[in-house]
UniProtKB/TrEMBL annotation, chains A, B:
It comes from Microbacterium mangrovi. NCBIfam families: SMC-Scp complex subunit ScpB. The keyword Cytoplasm applies. InterPro entries: ScpB_csome_segregation, WH-like_DNA-bd_sf, WH_DNA-bd_sf. Pfam families: SMC_ScpB. This is Chromosome segregation and condensation protein ScpB.
Amino acid sequence: MTRDAPEAPTPDAPEATAPDSGVDPELCRRIEAILLIAEEPQGIVALAAAVASPVRPVRAAVSWLAADYDGEHGGYRRGFELREVGGGWRLYVREELDDLISDYVGSQVPTRLSQAALETLAVIAYKQPVTRGQVASIRAVNVDSVVRTLLARGLVTEVGSDPETGAIFYGTTDALLAHLGINSLDELPHISPLLDDVDDVATFDGEVRR
Amino acid sequence: MTRDAPEAPTPDAPEATAPDSGVDPELCRRIEAILLIAEEPQGIVALAAAVASPVRPVRAAVSWLAADYDGEHGGYRRGFELREVGGGWRLYVREELDDLISDYVGSQVPTRLSQAALETLAVIAYKQPVTRGQVASIRAVNVDSVVRTLLARGLVTEVGSDPETGAIFYGTTDALLAHLGINSLDELPHISPLLDDVDDVATFDGEVRR
Amino acid sequence: MNDPAVVEQGQGGRAESSDSGFRVSLGVFDGPFDLLLTLISKQELDITEVALSKVTDEFIAYLRAARSADELEEASEFLVVAATLLDMKIAGLLPQGELVDAEAAALLEARDLLFARLLQYRAFKEVAAWFARSMQREERRHPREVRLDPKYRARVPELVWTLTPDDFAALAVLAFTPKEIPTVGLDHLHAPLVSIREQAAIVVDMLQSAGTLTFRDLVAGIREPGIVVARFLSVLELYRHAALSFDQDEPLGDLILQWTAVRWTDENLASLGADYDT
């Protein structure tokens, strides 16, 4: 960035953050530029590739920026924040200002998922990779059209197929994580004690119901 | 913003900028929130209306923010800047980083369209004006990122929105006609028997309740 | 079952969400159906004391009055739960004091499994509510999502385009063809159908050329049980038509078949085995 040179040493704005934090302001600038134009959450590795930097300093810079926007480095809390959601980092309006923005952009009527779709989604999220047949045996209803809806909305996706039966396995997408406001499946509520029994139940279903 | 109150006085991040500059950090936050989601440059009066504040402090806050992003208040020069263009203010990637962004966009937009992108383009061409949700229903997969690619390629464009739901309608562009070597959409080969069936797909949206 | 009212208070939040839904009024319990399930799942209410037929009657009455999609959705849900309850109840009514034999043990195990299934179903239902809340919260959030500046778009390398209008139309046809989600084939679960008539034709051929054969000869080298069965049935059919006779020298000994038909045409063959057609 040679074009940067003439401007960099402005007298009353020494790049003060760099020395004490160990974070390179030029790296931060490049990351901020990508985040400003990105239309999806950016994973650290993708960001590192975009700014042509090793992963480790990128990770450090992203953390530093998120804290900086939160006002933790002597500045003030910005109107935007850097959130890790849906497998990557993305700029968001700070939550407390959402009402202001809703008024400004005019709120769209969100299309909500039906109860059947939500339950099917929950089963896929916890049991993935899972076939429609397995989901149907847990919900005890036909889930084909619901799965179609979830596919069209990008909340689930095909993740492979059973080599023997050809049945398609479904799993959830990063878009689902983003819709839930979480960054990984680990952040789903814990229900494992109940699920421990599930595999037995599936076998049992297989023997009795077919 | 009463919800803000409990968080505001964080001990190690006193809202330091406010006292000496005379600029209200809450006002800055609100302006930043609007700027983050605004597509078009925002005039001072429009901004003042959006954040429900008199014009004068808004003008002062915008100037302060522009200087702040330039690193003039003790911070560092950000990767974005606040520029006045055509009578309004908008966030832009700092010009010195244009090459970085061009490379990034180039890497995101492939020179050849994928099969998924081509099929989506074909659906839009024959069904326009059509929403992303409708295309997704027909293709039975989520098409958001593919539509972004087509938009970025200038092959499709927004042609209006549903007054009730706010859903955006898409149509094809002259660029597509040029690629196909035809002068008008009328010259596309006829495939109507299939198109008649397409409205059936709407039932599929029944899973999604409003 | 001690006192449903007390437990209901203890349930707090859950009871609140089910107040609007289906309620039941039974001798042992009066309240939201959802709460009934909770009590059963916590073993605070004995399933054997619940009159399922009454629950079902009340639910059908409730559905008649139902108008909204929400309420109708409850219908399918109810069927799941009712079926599970019924299974549990059957298991619950069976004697379970002592494990007299393996069958009883299996039934007890089955009850536990049904129980697990009910719990699992409820777990997913509760998680689905969490999904709904999280999604509603998140859809209020505003990410940065601004059209790319045209100046960047202009620098994107030129698109490679190779399709003619006809190619493009063909793609459209492909794209508009409904993509049925492939269904799981059940073929692997059933042996392929075997035609008795086809097998009879083979049997007739073999017997006509050899005159006398044992049944063992007739199925020599055949591994598919279905074909063996079909050949045996066709032998019985041919016997009914007096086309062959058979002898067995000793019990479990070889079955000796002899072709006896004087006149035998393909028409006889066509009418053979009609009893097995469905």
